Amino acid sequence: MLDLSGIEAGYGETQVLYGLNLSAQQGRVLAILGRNGAGKSTTLKTIMGLLPLKSGQITFDGKPMPERPFDVAKTGIAYVPETRDIFPSLSVRENLELAAKRFKGGPGGWTMDRVVDLFPRLGERMDNGGTQLSGGEQQMLAIARALLMNPRLLILDEPTEGLAPIIVKLIHDKLLDLKRAGLSMIIVEQNFGFATSLADDVAVVGKGQVVWTGSAAEIRANEEVQHTWLGV
Amino acid sequence: MDLGFWTLQALNALQLSMLLFLLSIGLTVIFGLMHFVNLAHGSLYALGAYFGASLAATGGYWTGFFLAPVAVMAVGLVLYTLLIRRMRKSGPMAQVLVTFGLIFALLDLTRIVWGDLGLPMNAPEILSGRVAFLGVEYPAYRLFVVALGLGVFAALAYVLSRTQIGAMIRAGVDNDAMAACLGINVERLFFIVFCVGCALAGLAGTVAAPLLSVTPDMGLHILIPTLIVIVVGGLGSLKGAIAGSLIYGFVQTFGAVLAPQLASMLIYGFLAAVLVIKPAGLFPAKG
Fold first, then answer.
1. How far is CA B253 from CA B6, B166, B213, B263, in A?
2. Is A127's Cβ below 8 Å from some Cβ in B?
3. The ABC transporter domain covers which part of the protein (chain A) (predicted)?
4. Which of A26, B24, B88, B271 has the lowest tally of Cβ within 10 angstroms?
5. For A97-150, what is each residue's pLDDT tens digit?
């Protein structure tokens, strides 16, 4: 579905990715694991067109990925950034409508009502400002907003960061529901247990390259990879 | 100092505020949305005054009033295509230098076309009289400027807070990268905002023309007050632009009559105080 080959990218003069190869399959969940600074978030930002591609190729369904983020969004990729990036000047409803009106009737069939069914808490806070929400509510809003884009691929960067265990459990269960419904996902995550219980496939990134790939069951059994590349 | 004095000065302050608001709203939203510093915004105001005065001389006031903003928008379109679009990624220093240079280029251009002498423009017949208002006789045209500013404020407030394009603009000002990830063409949004900003600068110039004399350097003189307005008000927000304009108008007007010897530095003192207490301005778009 999504293929990255020989990706070199980074922030300005600082190169982070050195010939990274990665592949995400339709209908499956890929977890990208690795230590801080390994290049996980950089990989996601490069996919989204938020960082320029210095060399290498990204293809989505066999077609070259467009360069600009708003074109990437139109190909059917939704992105939940690490910082959630709720628009503070917009209410919860406006944050959601921004995506809902633009991608109405897409293949996922997501509507305002359906995301409120998924996260009832958002329904109670529709008219609140985006930043009046707790961290957990902001994460729900970011995921709901991404779903309203009716994506074919959902990309999540550190969805559990800074959240209370009970919210982590809730986000986990909701993502599991989405997986069962057949949504393709890429998840970057520090929380090893969270990631491997959701993922089908795992790619471990170290020093700007993919250093190991395998199934979630394989990495759970492979203490050497865990120790060397994840410090688990 | 009776009630009439206060009313008169308040109206003067309000009228200055509304002119500044028409100018600063475009500049602040362009800055907030695209982090683009367009110092030549004041020159577009001057062009608006010249276009207005020239058009009014041939076709009457209202011809100038309606067509000058369109003409200024056309100039903005040319500037955008030739210069600004290319400067988008080049950083604030290059943008400041280029648009500062543009001020002088446009200033000389107006000198070549219209000459150095001030150009007159008359208020329309229907607004040339005085109106009794809260115990004072006040020029109808100045009241018209106040009403126009308030009308534009109300219209922009409606668009920004109640429409989808308004939500897109606010989202773009908050976080342009995330807005783009939601499929919003931020560049096209910027272009629309830029055009509207230019038209409003042109409108400000046209309505100011009958109040001031139209001279080549009027764009340069208005630049500093406009920058003070957006810095005091906070970048990128409508609330900031209106608050900053009102503060500037009232501090400047009342300063000039109550403490003439301090008037020229009063607003700078106020600016410094705001920057110390709230470095991002009173109502910045990015909270």
1. 11, 33, 19, 8
2. no
3. 2-232
4. A26
5. 999 888 887 777 899 999 999 999 999 999 998 878 989 999 999 999 999 999
Does B238 lie in the same domain as B201?
Answer: no
Chain B residues with CB under 8 Å of A97 CB are 164, 167
As a whole number of angstroms, the distance between CA B152 and CA B159 comes to 11
If you measure CA to CA, which chain B residue comes closest to A85?
B178
Please compute Rg for chain B using Cα positions: 19
- Beta strand A184-188 with A29-33 is parallel
Domain segments of chain A: what residues? 1-76+153-232, 86-151
**Domain residue limits at B238:** 217-287
Interval B256-276: pLDDT, tens: 999 888 888 899 999 999 999
Total domains, chain B: 2
Q: Are residues B221 and B207 in the same domain?
A: no
Residue ending a domain, choose from B169, B191, B211: B211
The residues, ordered by sequence, that sit 6+ positions from B195 with a Cβ below 8 Å of its Cβ are B73, B76, B77, B80
Domain end (from B170, B187, B211)? B211
Over residues B63-76, the mean pLDDT reads 96
Q: Is A169 on the interface with B (CB under 8 A)?
A: no
Residues of A in contact with B181 (CB under 8 A): 48, 50, 69-70, 72-73, 78-79, 81
pTM surpassing 0.80? yes
Class of A1-76+153-232 in CATH: alpha beta
> In this structure, are B65 and B184 located in the same domain?
yes
Our CA-based measurement puts residue A217 at a distance from the nearest CA of chain B, in whole angstroms, of 33
